[in-house]
């Protein structure tokens, strides 16, 4: 099939990039000297210069090394978007550690699993997560806890509305360390020599078909390739203003909202949580040029009642992911801002984008063409060796320097996920004559809710911990705002017949699962459809729901 995307390849861009051998923390620390007096981060009005950022990274890195952190040791971050996260992430990498970014919505069981699977002995947390950690701490290998406080970086007179619902820690262990105390120690850090191609920088967890999340091993090269590639593809320039509101634990927010500004010498306007009014105020006040977003955010912005009171014309580029953009939202967004919403495609295993719409030639409905040094093929969904012609639907497989090394401590899953050097994404789609990719579905049983990937088996594992549930089946149903909504069909145990309530189960699930993961809709049933061997037929439930609605 060749590489048809070169027919429409942006004329100003090379087809290949030289990535060098410097790691991301090396380049960022160089920028901290180069732009030392410029702002790297603005957090609700609190400016952090590149010089302050660099000294904070080095002090925390030095402290970690002093505590005995060795190259390859895992350190977890369990925090919302705050300056603590940015400093911690880069300090962990600089010190030789491997970063494990945990979803701040994790409840106790989820936190315990990820800490034990990664083997992290040090964790850096925001105070709002401290109580959850304390409840599972003795079940993990955690030895060192560093606590950041929400007020550490909040100015006395914020320039934007500050989130009000940040939970305070009930009580602190006197042996735990204050983040700011460590920063103020000005510890000396010793640069580490890395094997650029082999050493792991990041364990990025992704949902698993078995119900147990898997850690994608992202090398220093994987990370640098994607950050540098995005800089050239999107044309980011020094001193550009970037709005950072996507969660940093997720690859899209991590790469395009957090790392890109400090890599390219821009300024990051950081928000802890998404609030549409705060977003439009930030774009207007700080003359934002770049914003990486998801479809639900764009829908909220277009529908915001006061949106026309704000000047959004400083925007030059807005990326969107998570779900397909409705045509009416695309048009209204362009009318408000003057820019196209540019869709991309990537995975945890590829540390974000492998295809993107070029800014000068976007196609609505497409997730774009393969970016620098990436090869994409469409193959028969049951035979990865059989490549399909343009326009024909099949499984999307990808190959490139941003594809992970493999799954952490999981050789079998790693082996099954690759074919002749290509990663099998499990996503279905087709490619048009210009090499633009279109997503048409998923081979895996996966639900896409508000940009998050949710495997039904993982939700079912948690539901089975409820004492009254005999059988359950989780599936996705269409939702105009979230893309898909999570629904659970449940059969109560005999002794709970007539005692379970659908609303109570939703409430229980909300308390025991992350906010994006728990089922919003529950249906109690006498039985679930099964085949001759007793396997629950998920597709029959989906069909049944669609026929009802």
Automatic annotation (TrEMBL):
Residues 458-535 form the AMP-binding enzyme C-terminal domain. Keywords: Ligase. Gene3D superfamilies: 3.30.300.30, N-terminal domain of ligase-like (3.40.50.12780). Pfam families: AMP-binding (PF00501), AMP-binding_C (PF13193). The keyword DNA-binding does not apply. It comes from the Bacteria. GO terms for molecular function: medium-chain fatty acid-CoA ligase activity. This is AMP-binding protein.
């Amino acid at each position: 099939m060749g590489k048809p995307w070169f027919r429409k390849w942006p004329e100003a861009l090379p087809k290949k990039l030289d990535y060098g051998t410097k790691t991301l923390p090396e380049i960022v620390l160089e920028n901290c000297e180069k732009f030392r007096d410029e702002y790297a981060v603005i957090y609700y009005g609190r400016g952090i210069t590149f010089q302050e950022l660099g000294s904070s990274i080095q002090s925390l890195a030095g402290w970690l090394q002093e505590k005995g952190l060795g190259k390859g040791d895992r350190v977890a971050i369990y925090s919302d978007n705050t300056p603590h996260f940015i400093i911690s992430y880069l300090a962990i990498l600089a010190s030789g550690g491997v970063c494990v970014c945990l979803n701040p919505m994790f409840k106790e069981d989820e936190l315990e699993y990820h800490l034990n699977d990664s083997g992290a002995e040090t964790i850096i947390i925001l105070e709002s997560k401290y109580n959850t950690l304390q409840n599972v701490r003795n079940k993990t290998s955690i030895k060192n806890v560093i606590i950041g406080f929400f007020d550490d970086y909040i100015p006395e007179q914020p320039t934007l509305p500050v989130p009000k619902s940040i939970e305070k820690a009930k009580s602190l262990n006197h042996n735990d360390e204050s983040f700011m105390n460590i920063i103020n120690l000005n510890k000396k850090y010793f640069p580490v020599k890395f094997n650029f191609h082999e050493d792991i920088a990041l364990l990025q967890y992704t949902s698993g078909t078995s119900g147990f999340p898997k850690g994608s091993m992202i090398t220093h090269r994987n990370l640098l390739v994607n950050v540098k590639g995005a800089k050239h593809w999107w044309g980011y320039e020094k001193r550009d203003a970037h709005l950072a509101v996507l969660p940093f634990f997720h690859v899209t927010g991590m790469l395009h909202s957090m790392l890109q500004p400090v890599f390219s010498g821009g300024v990051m306007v950081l928000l802890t949580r998404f609030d549409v009014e705060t977003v439009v105020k930030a774009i207007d006040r700080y003359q934002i040029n770049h914003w990486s977003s998801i479809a639900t955010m764009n829908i909220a912005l277009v529908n915001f009642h006061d949106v026309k009171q704000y000047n959004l014309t400083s925007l030059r580029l807005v990326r969107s992911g998570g779900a397909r953009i409705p045509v009416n939202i695309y048009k209204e967004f362009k009318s408000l801002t003057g820019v196209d919403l540019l869709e991309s495609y990537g995975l945890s295993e590829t540390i974000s984008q492998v295809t993107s719409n070029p800014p000068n030639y976007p196609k609505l409905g497409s997730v774009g063409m393969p970016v620098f040094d990436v090869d994409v093929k469409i193959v028969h969904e049951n035979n990865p060796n059989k490549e399909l012609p343009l326009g024909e639907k099949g499984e999307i497989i990808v190959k490139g320097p941003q594809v992970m090394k493999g799954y952490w401590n999981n050789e079998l899953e790693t082996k099954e996920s690759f074919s002749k050097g290509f990663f099998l994404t499990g996503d279905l789609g087709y490619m048009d004559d210009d090499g633009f990719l279109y997503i048409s579905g998923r081979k895996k049983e996966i639900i896409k809710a508000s940009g998050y990937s949710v495997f039904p088996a993982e939700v079912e594992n948690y539901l089975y911990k409820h004492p009254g549930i005999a059988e359950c089946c989780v599936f996705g149903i269409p939702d105009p705002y979230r893309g898909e909504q999570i629904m659970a069909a449940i059969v109560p145990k005999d002794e709970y017949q007539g005692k379970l309530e659908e609303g109570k189960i939703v409430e229980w699930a909300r308390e025991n699962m992350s906010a994006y993961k728990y089922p919003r809709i529950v249906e109690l049933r006498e039985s679930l459809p099964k085949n001759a061997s007793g396997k629950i037929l998920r597709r029959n439930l989906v069909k049944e729901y669609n026929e009802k609605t």
